[in-house]
Amino acid sequence: MTKEKLFNKLKNKGIFWSYSQDLTYEKAGERLFLEYLLKYGDFDDLIEVFKLYKKEEIKSIWEQTLKDDKRFIKLNLMLARLFFGMNVESSYFKEVKSARFEKLKMFAS
């Protein structure tokens, strides 16, 4: 499977629901594609993306966009253990500083 075919498969599942129907792989870019795939793709999609991209590329996007998001602790734990070979517990993600949470705190004060 190609990157574009995997993108279109996810698009047809409705994963990019908040974007225009005209969104293409080229317009979305790899960062958005990988972020949404990590968040909302199923297990088979995850297996497929690791065939198409280097683990370091995927891990970098994960660390930038998903790792500190407290809404995805269980998903982050699975990704860290199964795909990135990290020996961590869920408490690891509860202690990670969340940039999103810090921004919300700033707006609230």
Sequence-ordered SSE layout with sheet pairings:
Elements: H1 3-13, H2 25-40, H3 43-52, H4 55-65, H5 73-83, H6 90-95, H7 99-108
Q: What labels would you give this structure?
A:
109 residues, mainly alpha, 7 helices
Description:
This protein is an all-alpha fold. It folds into two domains: 1-66, no CATH class; 68-109, no CATH class. The protein is built from seven helices and no strands. The protein has helices at 3-13, 25-40, 43-52, 55-65, 73-83, 90-95, 99-108. α1 (3-13) crosses α2 (25-40) and α2 (25-40) crosses α4 (55-65). The longest helix has 16 residues, at 25-40. The chain is globular. The model has no long low-confidence stretch (mean pLDDT 88).
Question: What's the gist of this structure?
Answer:
This protein is mainly α and 109 residues long.
Query: Helical proportion?
Result: 55-70%
Distance from first to last alpha carbon = 48 Å
Shape: globular
* Residue-averaged pLDDT: 88
Portion of residues in beta strands equals under 5%
> Main sheet, how many strands, which sense, barrel?
none
Number of helices: 7
Q: Give the total of beta strands.
A: 0
pLDDT below 50 for ≥5 consecutive residues: which ranges? none
Which structural category fits the helices and strands? mainly alpha
Overall number of domains? 2
Order of helices and strands: HHHHHHH
Radius of gyration of CA atoms, rounded to a whole number = 15 Å
